[in-house]
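I have been asked to look over a protein record a colleague put together. The record follows directly below this note.
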Amino acid sequence: MGEHPHRGFETVTIVYEGAVAHRDSTGKGGTIGPGDVQWMTAGGGILHEEFHAPEFGRSGGAFRMIQLWVNLPAKDKMAAPGYQPITAADIPSMVLPEGAGTARIIAGSFGGERGPAHTFTPVNMWDLQLTAGGTTTLDLPEGHTAALVVVDGRVTVNGTVAEEGQAVLLEREGTQTRVAAETEAKILVLTGEPIGEPVVGYGPFVMNSEREIRHAMLDFNAGRFGRMPEREATGA
């Protein structure tokens, strides 16, 4: 996607296959590939662009990634924009009990391991690879909004069947969630402490009121989101 603005939230890009190149108005950028994560804080305003990485664009192949939008509380919506490049090597991984599979901890904590992502509110983001027939019980924070997204395969979550591309939204009461994999499966486990504030979204902006949305549009049109750096010259 070409140059575009954001304000008031964070984007999280998880790559499963392929490679994506990023650059933004803070001067940060880079390329992320399979297993890597890009955590960008739009905060008070950022311009960025994302494309297939040049080498991947030339070679081609499967391209698969997930992008999540993480809301920011009102007190942090105008925070300084930032960029966290998180490589696969940065993400702790642990083996689940009884051979059920593995878990990568991108954000929050799981089984005594902490993920590398900095978050403004309590957030958990776990990338699970489950073996066919494997069963695991997840201990989720009481009161969090929580969902499991099936990236690949077929699983049963507390008795509810979910397949590739489907999500299961969990109740906030209780902490334990049982996941049984009918096939090999990849799932994303997402939890967050409720912010409890109004949410008003318009295109690339996520704020608390229509007035703030209008202000974001005015600031963007006035050039207050910074400028993209010049592209580096490349040889033929």
